[in-house]
Write a structure and sequence with these properties.
The chain has 267 residues and is mainly alpha-helical. 76% of the residues lie in helices and 0% in strands. Helix 4 packs across helix 9 (188-198) and helix 8 packs across helix 9. It is globular.
Length: 267
């Protein structure tokens, strides 16, 4: 059991108290990077079409935006320890080839896992979708069954269920980005392994923390610009992660001590 959402939010606010200006500047830089990619995609869409543009956009997100996101995360992690980094540090993971490639390997590994697991989970939905398509019956030379029109409800159920299960499975990787930015020397595979190990006892706490921000996220769509909310959410995530790792280390330390026998000396 990690710290409660209330304690995490109080700690996050304390960490941000004298750092709001730099936090908003860094958030603005990260958000602007995303909108630049969106602008590029909009221009490409008029030239090469939607499908090719979508592929290029996701490639740009993977190769450019994710490293920026990790630099963004690193800025806030170091802020928790009173570091005063320059906002330009959001591009930190572009400063060294090894760091950049290691960042891509981290997300590439998690993405590959999501694709493999997702393919298995979505097989029932894919099968139902194929059965509901007219071209399948044209190939088979059969009339389209009347009941196939009702398969949309079944398709929605299978797709929704698969999505929920996939999200629940991928939650175990949520600590990997924090572990990665906390130690430049950590291997991406070790960060993933440690995340899977630690998150076994903290995933539910993380989910509850995420739900506690729903109101703030809705405000981003209605009134408050996201650059003013993002620092609070990210700092809370990092504070929670810090508590989760500390709790894990404490548990390991207690187990190690328990493995050693104790002796009483009588006189």
């Amino acid at each position: 059991m990690s710290a409660s959402s209330r304690i995490i939010k109080i700690t996050a606010k304390t960490a941000l108290k004298n750092n709001w200006v730099s936090a908003v500047v860094v958030s603005t830089a990260a958000v602007l990077c995303y909108f630049v990619l969106q602008l590029i995609a909009s221009v490409l869409n008029t030239v090469i079409g939607y499908t090719a543009t979508t592929v290029i956009f996701f490639a740009l997100v993977f190769f450019l935006l994710l490293p920026v996101g990790m630099g963004f995360l690193r800025f806030f992690w170091r802020m928790l320890f009173s570091a005063k980094d320059n906002p330009i540090s959001v591009f930190y993971y572009f400063s060294d080839r090894k760091l950049y490639l290691k960042t891509l390997k981290l997300f590439g590994s998690m993405l590959l896992h999501a694709v493999c697991v997702g393919f298995v989970l979505y097989l029932p939905a894919i099968a139902v979708w194929l059965i509901s398509q007219s071209f399948l019956y044209e190939i088979l030379g059969m009339p389209i069954p009347i009941w196939s029109a009702n398969l949309n409800y079944v398709l929605t159920f299978f797709a929704t269920t698969a999505s929920a299960i996939l999200i629940f499975i991928m939650i175990k990787f949520y600590l990997a980005p924090m572990l990665f930015v906390a130690d430049d020397n950590i291997d991406f595979a070790e960060a993933i392994h440690m995340s899977k190990t630690i998150s076994k006892k903290t995933s539910l706490d993380f989910i509850f923390l995420g739900f506690s921000f729903i109101g703030w996220i809705l405000l981003c769509f209605l009134y408050i610009p996201i650059v003013f909310i993002l620092p609070y959410i990210v700092t809370s995530y990092l504070v929670h992660s810090r508590f989760a790792v500390a709790e894990y280390n404490k548990h390991i330390s207690e187990n190690v001590k328990a493995d050693f026998p104790t002796f009483k000396v009588s006189f």
